[in-house]
Amino acid sequence: MPRRKRSLHAAASSFATAWRCIQPALAAVGALVVVGMATAPTADAKSPGSRYCFHGFCHRVGTLAQTDTLVGWRGQVIASYYDSCRLDRLNPCGLTSSGAVFRPDLPDNAASPLLPDGTVILAYNPKTGDASVLRITNAGPYSGKRKLDVSRAAAEKLGFRKQGVAPLVIIVLQSPNKTEASYVRKRVYPKVPGYLGSFDTVDLAREAAEERFDVREDSDLLTADANAAIETGSSGEAFVPRPQLAVSPSLARELVMLRTPPRPVNRGVRLVQGPRLVNRDSFTTGPSPVEADTTMYFGSGLQRYLLVQDAPDAND
After folding, report:
1. pTM of the model
2. What are residue 197's DSSP bridge partners?
3. Distances from the Cα of 240 to the Cα of 120, 156, 230, 244, 248, angstroms
């Protein structure tokens, strides 16, 4: 039986009827997608004072005023290192949280979930004595108890690349201003010294860091948070800084602050004076006459002393 052909007008009417039926369903699906996008959790930017989360690990970044209180303090953190995204599966490709391009081949940059971007620190390995000046340019790490992620080159210079993780002593050399702590795409920070060398104590490493890194003056460190913390004195003529805590309590829970400097690096036994060289003849011969006389005199004197003490009293 031959198939009946439908007219173009009838086909158009059928399509219009079907579209009217499915249009409410498509609208409902679209509304659900929009609502889902609005309610989906978003990652906060790493700005001072904000809560930053990644892979279920959350940290609160210190404010600029809190970071100012850490300048000069010694803290101990568990550090790891991260590499290029082509080699490190945990490192997403792209720019860093500060906007600077990540350079794993330079020993002058690191990531921190607590310190704002732009912060300059001294990282010291108390086991090897190696020290580097690093600038915080990224967020992380977000795994376990680690609070610092240095570049691959920095881990190599600090002597713990093979181990992967190591406790490091850090000192905040310079806190950032508001501009340095904010995100700027493909930004370029001023250079920091990077690897300094090996030192017996962290104090020597700090002296070397201060010689090679020019710390800004106090007048250049004033930020919006610092200006808000300044009050006018009772006389109205001078500005008196408001008293603040030595270390922020929120950061003190995350950082292990060291009240005393770490022990000096143990570089093995050091001889104050080397061994005395002698020839075979002097070694095989006996003691010199002076030494022999001294020995005999000491023995005879000791014998006489014992005999005198043991001798009976003549009056008995």
Report:
1. 0.65
2. 131
3. 27, 45, 6, 12, 20
Q: Kindly state the helix (H) or strand (E) to which residue 171 belongs, with its residue range.
A: strand 165-174
pLDDT, average across residues 225-250: 51
Residue 316 lies in a domain: no
130 or 224, greater pLDDT: 130
Range 285-294 average pLDDT: 54
Strands 51-54 and 57-60, bridge-based pairing: antiparallel
Percent of the chain with pLDDT over 70: 57
Residue 35 lies inside a defined structural domain of this protein: no
How sure is the predictor about 60, in pLDDT bands with cuts at 50, 70 and 90?
confident
Residue 226, both tokens = 């610092």
Please report, for the domain that includes residue 111, its CATH number: 2.40.40.10
* Residue range of the domain that includes 160: 51-258
Torsion sign over Cα 97, 142, 136, 224: positive
Residue 129 tokens read as 């004595």
250 close to 66: Cβ distance less than 8 angstroms: yes
- What is each CA distance from 145 to 46, 163, 253, 284, in whole angstroms? 19, 16, 12, 63
Q: Is residue 44 part of a domain?
A: no
Q: Answer whether residue 245 is part of any domain.
A: yes
Report the number of secondary-structure helices (H) and strands (E) in the chain: 9, 12
